[in-house]
Amino acid sequence: MSREIELWRAVAGDTGLLQRAEAIDPSDVSAVAALRRDYDADAVSVAFGLVEARAKAARKFGEFGQRLVADALGVEQASGVGVAAYKAGRIAQTLGNGELIADLCCGIGGDSMALADAGFGVVCVDRDPLRVWMAMQNTSQRVQGICADVRSLVLDGKAVHIDPARRNEATSKRAWRLEDYQPGPEFIERLIDSAAATAIKLSPGVDLAALPWPGEVEFISEGGRLVQAVLWTGGFAQAARRATLIVSGAIHQLAGEAAPPAYQAPQRYLYTFDPSVERAGLVGQLSTLLDAPAIHPKLGLLTSNTITTSPWIDGFELIERMPWRPKRIKQWLAANDGGLIEVKTRGKACDPDIEQRRLRGDGSTTYTVFVLRFDTKVQALMTKRIRQK
Fold first, then answer.
1. Burial class of residue 247 (count of CB atoms within 10 Å of its CB; 0-12, 13-18, 19+)
2. pLDDT tens digits, one per residue of 19-69
3. 327 pLDDT exceeds 80?
4. Residue 296: HSE in the Cβ half-sphere, 13 Å Cα cutoff
5. Distant-in-sequence, close-in-space partners of 37: CB < 8 Å, separation ≥ 6
6. How confident is the model at residue 179 (pLDDT cuts 50, 70, 90)?
7. Which residues are 121's β-sheet partners?
8. How many other CB atoms sit within 10 Å of the CB of residue 209?
9. Are 200 and 225 spatial neighbours (Cβ–Cβ below 8 Å)?
10. How far is Cα 170 from Cα 180, in angstroms, rounded to an integer?
11. Three-state DSSP class for 326?
């Protein structure tokens, strides 16, 4: 076992050191120096890293985040509990419990944990020995860990989940292009050809036009925040596109072929919708489901003359529509009891942070102002949020 892993093992088991590190601001030079008088400097550095990682893990891993063994970057790259459990459940629908699956580029084991919880035999593989060790700790040693370059493995006929690196660990910059993934497109293509079924974790911002492989592309949103895209191939693929929304443990889905919606001028009510729907190209399906056409191909709003409720949407009552002239908008808001103002826009029609401060008034009514470019004209849609009962 490497010295680095031994150091992490010792720090993770030293409650006293971790409690002291948690109570200290890492920028407080004198406090850090005092801690280093009692502990090795490398141990102190690891302790601060683990404390930071656990703080970041709260959103993704809930209470388990306080027991997670991870570094901060590993937490950022990992699938959270809800998303990982959903994917493991979906894989179980195809494979059945007890089957073997390889979790490649496993990182700290976010997906490995969920796969083990679902009853799979899991082989987690990463080229970083520390990350393999972390994954094994986080899965309570319920997986087989292999430190290897995944490109050296023979995986013919096996089911695979893979999370290619999409961030340069030296610079922390994200990789947006497929050719910058590690391992890259050539390996992924070989993997798709040789594996029985694959789940390939992609960036939510993946360029679909540049995606060269057949399969189902799924965009996953958790609590309204787009967190992951997955390419499902082989036996895992079930549709062309899928949008999945996870809210408080409930799973909502749209699936099918990408298709545009019908269009209509803004009516009495406007609706924003979950970003997974737009990324999956399924706005047409949602529009049909809700009987609410879109107001424009690029503005991300549906509309109707009746109130519609759905976990996919947030609703707004349209009060007034006028040209976007900030002075005139401020006058209208002042005349209509405007107080706190929320500004939403698309395509940089304005700077919403600046305009929210500029338009705020002394009244008691909160308005949401959509500042949108209708082809060549920028207009303001003055609305109030529809409060869900």
1. middle
2. 999 999 989 999 999 999 999 999 999 999 999 999 999 989 999 999 999
3. yes
4. 16
5. none
6. confident
7. 100
8. 5
9. no
10. 14
11. helix
Helix axes 15-22, 3-12, angle to 10 degrees: 80
In angstroms, the CA 5 to CA 385 distance is 52
Instruction: Report yes or no: 286 and 273 within 8 Å, Cβ to Cβ.
Output: yes
**Look-up of token digits 């004209």:** 377
- The pair of structure tokens assigned to 279 is 């990324």
E-only strand ranges, the chain: 100-104, 121-126, 144-147, 159-162, 197-202, 216-222, 225-234, 241-247, 250-256, 269-273, 302-304, 313-323, 338-345, 365-374, 377-385
Interior/surface letters 175-190, b for 16+ CB within 10 angstroms, e for the rest = beebebbbbbbebbee
Residue 164 in tokens:
């290619």
Q: Calculate the alpha carbon distances from 293 to 106, 225, 263, 268, 331 in Å.
A: 42, 23, 5, 12, 31
| Confidence check: pLDDT of 170 > 60 | no
* Owner of token pair 């965009």: 219
Helix ranges (H only) for 232-317 are: 275-280, 283-290
**For 248, what's the count of Cα atoms within 13 Å in the CB-facing half-sphere?**
1
For 351, list phi and psi in degrees, rounded to 5: -95, 105
Give pLDDT, residue 174. Answer: 74
Specify whether the CB–CB gap between 265 and 295 falls below 8 A: yes
Q: How far apart are CA 99 and CA 89, in angstroms?
A: 13
The whole-angstrom separation of Cα 18 and Cα 69 is 12
**In degrees, to the nearest 5, what angle opens at C-alpha 25 toward C-alphas 129 and 167?**
35
Long-range contacts of 355-362 (CB under 8 A, 24+ apart): 355/326, 358/326, 358/330, 359/326, 359/329, 359/330, 359/333, 361/330, 361/333, 361/334, 361/337, 362/334
CA angle 191, 206, 86 (to 5 degrees): 70
Q: Is the pLDDT of residue 223 over 90?
A: no
Give the DSSP letter of residue 65. G
Residue pair 99/122 in contact by the 8 Å Cβ criterion: no
Quote the CA–CA distance of 173 and 99 in Å, as a whole number. 36
Q: Is the pLDDT of residue 95 over 60?
A: yes
Model confidence at 180: pLDDT above 90: no
Distance between CA atoms of residues 52 and 66, nearest Å: 11
Nearest to 269 by CA among 295, 299, 297: 295
